[in-house]
């Protein structure tokens, strides 16, 4: 399993508009990182580009897992290499149960050479493991029989993402605004699940968020500020506290060139629909 995720001078465009303008970031197994920034700074763009969304064009830079070029791989191959993305807005899949989805996903991750139609992991083994993970996350067993995200509340969708994280055991997990749309109790419950998984599996985690509230529960060792399409500040947890207290005005004053780029990146309706 990979131990280092390295992002170097990453430039990403969507519909010909450059969003990321040279992002540098290194995450190691077992580390907790937070990526903060105002709306439209490019946080979700980074997550989608890392996972290989076809609408996001990487025009310069590199992303590697232990030296292996991630950008040469398809999205499913990136997942098999050890990368996981928890979506801000998870998609519903009517007719496919949580358990059935996870049994196929887990089999393909653990047996990357498997071809469609070949045997899945044994049902007895899978049932035992999913029960253990759901007990660990405080989830009702009935949850596994429901169609994936169909009729789920915001909190249930995010807990389903954490269950996927727990079952797939990736080397690196990107949590794209996992706190979005959740009340404070749901944020706490989801965060506790992430902490358990990250601790047990030594997962490297990148939490993408606007606000400090989730970081009170998933307390990162490293905090980064994405502004104007690049990381302009990095520090410890105290940086998140500073942003919570003072907002981003001081970042704008300290980095005028990035502030100019940030103004140009102000999200338009079409970009918001695209997930920017």
What does this protein structure show overall?
By secondary structure, the protein is an alpha/beta fold. It has one domain: Rossmann fold (3-Layer(aba) Sandwich), CATH 3.40.50. It has ten helices and twelve strands. The protein has helices spanning 43-51, 75-81, 98-110, 123-136, 154-168, 184-201, 237-246, 249-254, 256-264, 269-273; strands at 4-14, 17-28, 32-36, 57-65, 68-69, 83-86, 93-97, 147-148, 172-176, 204-209, 222-227, 230-235. The strands form three sheets. It has a six-stranded mixed β-sheet with strand order 6-9-10-3-11-12, sandwiched between helices. A four-stranded antiparallel β-sheet has the order 2-1-4-5, covered by helices on one side. It has a two-stranded antiparallel sheet with strand order 7-8. A hairpin with a 2-residue loop joins strand 1 (4-14) and strand 2 (17-28). The relative contact order is 0.18. Mean pLDDT is 90; it is low at 268-276.
Total number of distinct structural domains: 1
* Count of strand segments: 12
Summarize the amount of helix as a percent range.
25-40%
Helix-strand string = EEEHEEHEEHHEHEHEEEHHHH
Low-confidence stretches: 268-276
In the CATH scheme, the class would be: Alpha Beta
Q: According to CATH, what is the topology?
A: Rossmann fold
Any idea what the radius of gyration is? 19 Å
CATH architecture: 3-Layer(aba) Sandwich
Q: In summary, what is this structure?
A:
This protein is α/β, with parallel strands linked by helices and 276 residues long. 38% of the residues lie in helices and 26% in strands.
Relevant terms:
six-stranded mixed beta sheet, four-stranded antiparallel beta sheet, 10 helices, alpha/beta, Rossmann fold, single chain, 12 strands, 276 residues
């Amino acid at each position: 399993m990979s131990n280092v995720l390295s992002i170097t001078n990453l430039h990403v465009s969507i519909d010909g508009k450059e969003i990321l303008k040279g992002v540098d970031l290194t995450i190691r197994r077992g580390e907790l990182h937070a990526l903060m920034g105002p709306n439209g700074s490019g946080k979700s763009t980074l997550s989608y580009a890392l996972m290989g969304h076809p609408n996001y064009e990487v025009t310069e830079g590199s992303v590697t897992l232990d030296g292996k070029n991630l950008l040469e791989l398809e999205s499913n191959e990136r997942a098999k290499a050890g990368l996981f993305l928890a979506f801000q807005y998870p998609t519903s899949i009517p007719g496919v149960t949580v358990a059935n989805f996870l049994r196929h996903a887990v089999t393909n991750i653990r047996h990357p050479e498997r071809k469609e139609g070949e045997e899945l992991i044994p049902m007895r083994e899978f049932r035992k493991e999913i029960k253990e993970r759901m007990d660990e996350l405080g989830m009702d067993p009935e949850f596994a029989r429901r169609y994936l995200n169909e009729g789920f509340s915001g909190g249930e969708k995010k807990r389903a993402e954490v269950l996927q994280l727990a079952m797939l055991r990736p080397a690196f997990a990107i949590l794209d605004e996992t706190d979005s749309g959740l009340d404070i109790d749901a944020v706490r419950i989801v965060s506790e699940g992430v902490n358990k998984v990250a601790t047990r599996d030594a997962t490297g985690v990148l939490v993408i968020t606007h606000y400090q509230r989730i970081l009170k529960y998933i307390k990162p060792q490293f905090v980064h500020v994405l502004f104007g399409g690049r990381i302009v500040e990095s520090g410890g947890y105290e940086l998140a506290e500073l942003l919570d207290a003072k907002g981003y005005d001081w970042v704008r004053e300290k980095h005028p060139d990035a502030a100019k780029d940030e103004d140009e990146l102000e999200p338009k309706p079409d970009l918001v629909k695209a997930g920017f």
